Input
Amino acid sequence: MKRMKIKNEMLSPDERGFTILQTVIAVAIMSVICGFAAIGLTKAKADLKLQGSVRQLAGYLEKARLDAIKRHGSSSVAFIDTNTYTVNMDFDGDGVPDSRTIPFEGDVAVFSTPLPSVGFNWRGRTEDCTLTFAVQNAGGRQVNVDVSDAGDVTVNGNVDVLPSVTYATVNSGADVDSTTVVTGTTVRNNSVDCTVDSGSGTAGPPISGSGPGCTDTASPSSISIRKNGGSSAPITVHATNTGTVTVQAPSNLQITPQTQTVAGGGTATISISSLNTIRGTFAVNISTPCTTLTVLLTVTN
Output
């Protein structure tokens, strides 16, 4: 026994190994590191699914536009639910449009209201002057998709400031030949294709909803605000009965307050602003003691 004790005392610290406490600490540190790595990997995979889904959607929009021009006809890309869209175009080259249903990857979904629908005419142009909608994944990562009236598709594109342009003065006598004549009698169709401007800032009329023996209203029913806190919009709710008014909205919107008490026959005022650069039209659901009212809020540049 005495001989073993002397032998142990002769060992250096490196030769004695780890104590139980040191082992526990090392395992705990490794667990934390592995946990952060797993979280980062999950987030990266979700972001890749989002990017891949939006890239595929943009590709089908461009293909449908070119198909309409090629066939001198029409084509479309329309969402049938938040995760799935239908592409109507000539897929097999026989001159007859076919329909294919394309799903987003995983939990990627559109969260704009109403569901986007893009139609291209024979010139490759759309009916909407500008169609903007937003797509997100379960992790909350969001992207914008813009489709212009010319059919151009832009992902996460923002044009906030117009560039400075220098204009040169044109001398009508020296720089313009007044004798130039363009021959021909055919009248060209130069009418505007788009009829709807989704970025309109005009507030909609009040919206009402009824329940057993009561009718509540919200005003306005639709309104626009600027992105990233550029402006805010007040919504006034008139309640028939005493109770609680609760507001639910997408995560890109700030609702103040989200919950408040309202007296019977009284009003509740809600302020809505944008938290980031995501644009589009979003549903804001207001639950009152009587019913649920949906206000459409458009976030613009």
